[in-house]
Amino acid sequence: MMQREDSDGNSYIFNEEDLPYEEEILRNPYSVKHWQRYIDHLKSTKSVNLNIVYERALKELPGSYKLWYNYLRQRVKQLKGRCVTDPLYEDVNNAFERALVFMHKMPRIWMDYCTLMTDQCYITRTRQVFDRSLRALPITQHHRVWPLYIGFLKKHNVYETAVRVFRRYLKLAPEDAEEYIEYLISTGRLDEAAVKLAQIVNQDDFVSKHGKSNHQLWNELCDLISKNPTKIKSLNVDAIIRGGLRRYTDQLGPLWNSLADYYVRSGLFERARDIYEEAIQTVSTVRDFTQVFDAYAQFEELSLSKRMEDAAKNPNPTEEDDIELELRLARFEHLMERRLLLLNSVLLRQNPHNVQEWHKRVMLYEGQPHEIINTYTEAVQTVLPQQAVGKLHTLWVAFAKFYEENGQIADARVVFDKATHVAYTKVDDLASVWCEWAEMEIRHDNCKEALKLMHKATTMPSRKVAYHDETETVQMRLYKSLKVWSMYADLEESFGTFKTCKAVYDKIIDLKIATPQIIINYGLFLEENNYFEEAFRAYEKGIALFKWPNVYDIWNTYLTKFLKRYEGTKLERTRDLFEQCLEHCPPKYAKALYLLYAKLEEEHGLARHAMSVYERATSAVLPEERFEMFNIYIKKAADIYGVPKTRQIYEKAIEVLNEENTREMCLRFAEMETKLGEVDRARAIYAHCSQICDPRVTSNFWQVWKEFEVRHGNEDTMREMLRIKRSVQAMYNTQVNMMSAQMLNSATNLSIDDSAGTGDAMRLLDNKIPSTSTDAAAQPGFKDNIKFVRGVTEGAGKSERQVNNPDEIDIDMDDDSEDEEKEIEEDVPVEKQAIPSKVFGSLKATKEDEDD
Question: Is the entire prediction scored with pTM above 0.70?
Answer without folding.
Answer: no
